[in-house]
Design a protein that fits this description.
The chain is of the alpha+beta class. Bound molecules: zinc ion (3 copies). One zinc ion binds next to loops.
Length: 293
């Protein structure tokens, strides 16, 4: 310090300028505070360390001390059948008897036998030109009957939900009535609907009746394929053809058909692909799907 800036007189505290004195005093205080905190954690063989405290909440038979809880977690963590997901800053790990969430500054631990899980929120991210596949992110809250364990949230992709259910023995409640889309095709239906809503609607010629959808027979057919995509300058799609079929399919059935005719390994191509009309085989793209009004 004194070699780099001799003119600042940093050898002696009483020769320094006031700003430097404040800086040095603060640095020393910070160092002392850190050391005190570490000594406090270290007392009684790390008895006060936050991770050790989180583990102490689970000291009950068969575990006699937090070291025994830690070794149980260690053993199960090494098994290959554990469930693990999430980014490094919010990793979720579920072993045979433990639910863990490891964040940058905290480790949350809940015993499977004590906890119950609630699906509280879902966020849907549509398939778009810049995302490879549509995703649905679920937030699950882990509550423990152990009063020393605070509830915590875990987040995962809906396609991992089935695997999580297999690993969690605790009941999982769906409080928010969240519709969980566990496959990429189900997720795609939401995207399909959102994109079709942007297309112009189709008005039925007067006197024409709509019939039930021939795919599900549950709702009335509400889609019509109209070749709208041609002549859009650079977006010209010469391969689309005009379909002359009367409305026969509902939007969900047409969306499922559209998804089923795609390369299942490459969902990022789905929006821009053409598939044949399920009835007459004329090629259409997502821009050509109109909802009947
Ligand atoms: Zn249908
Ligand atoms: Zn057709
Ligand atoms: Zn088209």
């Amino acid at each position: 310090m004194c070699i780099a800036a001799p003119e600042k007189h940093l050898q002696y505290v009483h020769q320094m300028s006031d700003n430097w004195r404040v800086f040095v005093v603060l640095s020393v205080c910070l160092l002392l505070a850190n050391s005190t905190l570490i000594i406090y954690w270290f007392r009684n063989r790390w008895h006060n360390h936050p991770i050790s405290r989180a583990l102490q909440a689970h000291v009950q038979p068969p575990h006699s001390n937090w070291g025994s809880v830690a070794s149980s977690i260690n053993t199960e963590f090494r098994r290959i059948d554990k469930f693990a997901t999430g980014a490094p800053g919010a990793r979720v790990i579920i072993t045979d008897s433990w639910v863990l969430k490891v964040t940058t500054y905290h480790v949350y631990v809940a015993a499977q036998s004590d906890c119950h899980v609630t699906v509280t929120e879902c966020r849907q991210h549509q398939l778009s030109p810049d995302s490879a596949s549509p995703i649905q992110l679920l937030t699950l809250r882990v509550h423990s009957i152990n009063p020393a364990v605070r509830p915590f949230d875990i987040r995962l992709n809906s396609t991992e939900y089935a695997e999580l259910r297999e690993k969690v023995h605790a009941p999982i409640r769906n409080s928010a009535n969240v519709v969980i889309h566990q496959t990429i095709s189900e997720l795609f239906l939401e995207t399909f609907r959102a994109h079709v809503d942007l297309n112009q609607p189709y008005s039925l010629p007067s006197g024409q009746e709509v019939e039930p959808c021939i795919g599900c027979m549950q709702v009335s057919a509400n889609t019509k394929l109209v070749r709208l995509c041609h002549g859009d300058g650079a977006d010209i799609e010469p391969e689309c053809e005009q379909c002359f079929c009367r409305p026969m399919w509902c939007l969900s059935c047409l969306g499922r058909w559209f998804a089923s005719r795609q390369d299942q390994q490459r969902p990022e191509t789905w929006l821009s692909s053409r598939v044949p009309c399920p009835t007459c085989r004329a090629k259409f793209c997502i821009l050509d799907v109109c909802v009947i009004h």
